[in-house]
């Protein structure tokens, strides 16, 4: 018997931290924040497209892109490279031909899926899938390690030992996993309360607004944070002090991701 997506979702929720980008809660926060900011017209279109989903909300579909990848479905395999981009060097000197050939990276995926979603002549299921992809990939683009270095696969090969409230006995992880999971989970808030908290954070004026390729700008912002915020710890052991130090960066990225997802859906669904 093949596992259902509901079974896979439960398995993913209990999986090791690196299994989900931003963790399940992180992606749900991006979806929840975006949905709160949609206009009635855009929200109506979102609700129509998601009407048959088990949880018909942006938060409810926010981890679907990871679930189909874990299930190794054909679409999951096809979309495997769409969750990230690896850019060599500290200066984040992005070269599309080198770093995103044929649009096979998170930047190309956001642009491609927005085009599908905005085309009312496309089959309904394609547009539903495009919406679910966008909720996830906009979140991914704002996670610094999803725009990390190729030499360690965005921190996946940078091994660490975390000891803190979440794992008092110590746990082997990696830098990517720390940013996918421990940073958000370490706040100790449920999703609704955390979304309320994130909504209180001031949004800066958006330097990516109006650009021809905002997805590229968002992703390169993430890449530059790795050096600017010294996200690689000096040793191979981290405690809650690392999480507490860098959580404001993560929360600012989640807040921006929610606002930018809402703006992208407005532009795409209500031109």
From TrEMBL:
Name of a matching Pfam family: S1-P1_nuclease
Signal peptide (from-to): 1-21
Keywords on record: Disulfide bond, Endonuclease, Glycoprotein, Hydrolase, Metal-binding, Nuclease, Signal
Superkingdom classification of source: Bacteria
Xref: SUPFAM superfamilies: Phospholipase C/P1 nuclease
Gene Ontology MF annotations: endonuclease activity
InterPro entries cross-referenced by the UniProt entry: PLipase_C/P1_nuclease_dom_sf (IPR008947), S1/P1nuclease (IPR003154)
Alphabetized PANTHER family for the sequence: ENDONUCLEASE 4
Protein's recorded name: Endonuclease
């Amino acid at each position: 018997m093949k596992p259902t997506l509901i079974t896979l979702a439960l398995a993913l929720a209990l999986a090791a931290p690196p299994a989900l980008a931003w963790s399940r809660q992180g992606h749900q926060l991006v979806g929840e924040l975006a949905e709160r900011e949609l206009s009635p017209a855009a929200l109506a279109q979102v609700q129509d497209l998601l009407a048959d989903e088990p949880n018909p909300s942006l938060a409810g579909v926010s981890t679907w892109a990871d679930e189909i990848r874990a299930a190794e479905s054909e679409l999951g395999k096809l979309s495997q490279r769409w969750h990230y981009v690896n850019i060599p060097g500290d200066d984040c000197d992005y070269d599309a031909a080198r770093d995103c050939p044929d649009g096979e990276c998170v930047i190309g995926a956001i642009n491609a899926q927005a085009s599908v979603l905005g085309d009312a002549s496309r089959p309904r299921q394609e547009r539903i899938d495009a919406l679910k992809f966008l909720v996830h990939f906009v979140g991914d683009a704002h996670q610094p390690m999803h725009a990390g270095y190729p030499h360690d696969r965005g921190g996946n090969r940078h091994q660490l030992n975390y000891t803190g409230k979440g794992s008092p006995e110590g746990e082997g992880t990696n830098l990517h996993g720390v940013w996918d999971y421990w940073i958000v989970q370490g706040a100790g808030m449920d999703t609704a309360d955390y979304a309320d908290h994130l909504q209180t954070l001031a949004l800066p004026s958006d330097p990516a607004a109006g650009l021809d390729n905002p997805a590229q700008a968002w992703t390169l912002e993430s890449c530059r944070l790795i050096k600017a915020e010294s996200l690689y710890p000096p040793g191979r052991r981290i405690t809650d002090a690392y999480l507490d130090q860098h959580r404001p960066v993560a929360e600012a990225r989640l807040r921006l991701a929610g606002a930018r997802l809402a703006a992208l859906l407005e532009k795409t669904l209500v031109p």
